[in-house]
Design brief:
Length: about 575
């Protein structure tokens, strides 16, 4: 049995370290699936499993724990950056500006409430109390990347071996933070006297008034000699308008034309286009026929099909300008990007890897699939080189020192902020530099989750040794109730303003709050309360900027105040 005892006690062996992480991560993930009141802590429970392991002395050398922690953090934030990058800049367009401004205000208020609690309830002469409150802040807002950024920034402020284990404050505030977000969202409903039935009815009215271009169908005779001998694709490109030619009568025979079909003089065609484009198309092709010929085909049944955007030319194009509804007679009901369900709004910008759920006649759905690419094989190969090139550039970028007045040490974005910003830029503009930035949803989620559990396990194990003294015998109860205040006060203030002053739909506010706190359980609750896509709109609009600000503000607070 000596071999088994040595496996658990020889802390510097590779087998022991691998066993330690395997047990902590497996136990944490399994316990995190347990739901209480329909809510679970998810993968964050790995932190608590790590704290328990560290508390009982099941640990590893500090330098090994630090390396795995930092590498996991880099992997985690970089994959988040790739996920939010394509929609990061688009989230500032038009209606998204106000939502993002409200979200930014909420993040700013979280920091203000944290400082208020620090000065009201804690001994300000103790240099460890403010860092612990930063950990409490990120537990209260359920934002693990922010915890990682703050933890990394503390290493540049405090001497080696004296860095506060802020994961203790995070662990105390996190459980009540999850409940507080949902509870405060419900409270807004009663404060503003909002009826869910009325809000859903308003969404139905807006949907009915959706200003999509109206479809227009017409039968034309080809009389323009310029287009004789040219293909349907060439004609469509010359017009620079979306048209669908669904039937062609040539020499008395009706066929279904393709993009390569050649037009002849006096051919008769059945064209569907946007109503606004009908006059220009008719003037270019030929006159409309008063008595249309019979197609001889019954109406096709509707089908739904998942289509993947793989054609590079679709990058950056907006859904509204594609005229899918009016021209092709199909509707895009849902868009999935990097595992996130996005609302199919007219302003959505396509990116390679987007997955569209398209509903319509089979022929037209297949035409849309051909136009978007829909070649899944192109996306199957993992783009490992792009990921590590991005991480390399991100680490270099994060290491650039920026001297700012009043700061004790130069500001560095570090291994959290640098890779995050580079990943966002690569995710949005990488295709312009011939970088294949798409990563399959499963690959992104796998890398991200591996990075997250490695980070959480390492932080928990390192914090476990002093957890009992810090929390149970120290200020643990204060971290719990101050964390709750940090969670609910900004939500109640900003949520009420968004409802009463800016008149946002309540379901959109629910999504905005969930996105600001980057909290999936809150989004799940919002989605269960509404049959429409309003929560998803609010969530996806503010999530990219919120994630960036949470990580960036963690470093700013630590470097400006904790190092003073």
């Amino acid at each position: 049995m000596d071999w088994l005892i040595n496996l658990f006690t020889t802390t510097d062996s590779v087998a022991h370290i691998a066993l330690l992480y395997a047990i902590v991560i497996a136990v944490g993930v399994l316990l995190g699936k347990i739901k209480i009141g329909g809510i679970s802590l998810g993968v964050t429970f790995v932190l608590f499993a790590g704290i328990l392991a560290g508390h009982v002395g099941f640990t590893a050398p500090t330098n090994i724990l630090t390396f795995i922690q930092d590498f996991g953090l880099i992997l985690f934030v970089f994959c988040i950056g790739l996920q939010v990058g394509p929609g990061f800049f688009e989230s500032f367009r038009k209606g998204g500006v106000t939502l993002n401004a409200l979200s930014t205000a909420m993040i700013f208020l979280d920091v203000l409430v944290m400082f208020a609690c620090y000065y009201l309830f804690f001994d300000t002469s103790n240099p460890n109390n403010l860092p612990m409150m930063v950990g409490t802040l990120y537990g209260a807002v359920t934002n693990t990347p922010g915890l990682g950024a703050a933890n990394e920034a503390l290493n540049s402020v405090f001497p080696k071996g004296q860095v506060p284990q802020i994961a203790s404050g995070y662990a105390c505030a996190y459980p009540l933070g999850v409940l507080g977000i949902i509870g405060a969202t419900i409270a807004i409903r009663y404060i503003t006297h909002t009826r869910l039935e009325d809000e859903e009815a308003k969404l139905n009215e807006q949907e009915a008034e959706n200003p999509h271009a109206k479809p227009y169908q017409m039968h034309l005779r080809v009389t323009n000699t310029y287009i004789v001998g040219r293909s349907l694709l060439e004609i469509s490109q010359f017009l620079n308008r979306d048209i669908v030619c669904s039937r062609l009568l040539h020499d008395g025979q009706v066929t279904i034309p393709t993009r390569d079909t050649i037009f002849c003089q006096n051919d008769e065609i059945l064209v569907v286009c946007a109503e606004a484009d009908a006059e220009a198309i008719q003037a270019f092709i030929g006159p409309e026929i008063d008595t249309p010929w019979e197609t001889g085909n019954e109406k096709q049944p509707l089908i739904s099909k998942r289509i993947v955007v793989t054609r590079p030319s679709m990058n950056g194009k907006t859904l509204g300008k594609m005229h899918f509804s009016s021209v092709y007679g199909v509707n895009v009901t849902r868009i999935t990007r990097q595992g996130m369900d996005l609302f199919a709004s007219r302003n959505h910008h396509f990116q390679v890897g987007d997955r569209l759920m398209v509903v319509g006649p089979e022929d037209n759905v297949n035409r849309v699939a051909e136009m978007m690419g829909n070649s899944i094989k192109r996306l199957d190969a993992p783009n490992i080189a792009t990921i590590f090139i991005g991480i390399l550039i991100g680490i270099l970028f994060g290491s650039i020192p920026l001297a700012l007045p009043g700061m004790p040490v130069p500001l560095k974005l570090g291994i959290a902020g640098g890779p995050l910003i580079i990943a966002i830029l690569i995710g949005r503009f990488g295709y312009k530099f011939k970088l294949v930035t798409y990563t399959t949803t499963s690959a992104n989620m796998m890398l991200r989750e591996i990075g997250l559990v490695l980070f959480l396990a390492s932080v928990g194990i390192k914090a476990g040794a002093g957890f009992w003294e810090t929390v149970v015998q120290g200020d643990g109860l204060k971290y719990v109730y101050t964390g709750f205040l940090i969670t609910v006060i900004p939500i109640l203030i900003v949520g009420t303003i968004a409802r009463l002053k800016f008149k946002f739909n309540y379901f959109t506010i629910m999504g905005m709050i969930a996105g600001t706190y980057t909290d999936p359980p809150a989004l799940a609750y919002a989605n269960s309360s509404c049959t429409k896509e309003a929560p998803a709109i609010g969530y996806s609009t503010v999530y990219p900027l919120s994630m960036f600000l949470r990580i960036f503000s963690a470093q700013i607070v630590v470097l400006f105040f904790c190092g003073a």
